[in-house]
Amino acid sequence: MHFARSELYEAASVLTQLGTNHLRLGSPVLAREHWLRAVRLLTELSHPYADEVRAKLAALVAGPA
Q: By the 8 A CB rule, do 34 and 12 touch?
């Protein structure tokens, strides 16, 4: 099955938001899973938003400041 670039971006956007929601609800493991899937799609698309999602992942690994 072939997906348009816009569909892949939309999927990555939804995955990013799901990750954010899971983190807010206290599920960092699920947040990480969704953000990893999002960053894979964004990297495939060479989309600059991938860096923002990578930053979310880095902050998650770093823990609270």
A: no
Please give the structure tokens belonging to residue 28: 């960092």
- pLDDT digit string, tens, across residues 10-26: 999 999 999 999 999 99
Q: Note the pTM of the prediction, 2 decimals.
A: 0.89
Helix axes 28-44, 49-62, angle to 10 degrees: 150
Residue 65, pLDDT > 70, answer no
Using DSSP's 3-state secondary structure scheme, residue 20 falls into: helix
19 contacts: CB under 8 Å, gap ≥ 6: 30, 31, 32, 33, 34, 35, 38, 53, 56
Q: How far apart are CA 46 and CA 18, in angstroms?
A: 21
Tell me the C-alpha distance between 15 and 42, whole Å.
11
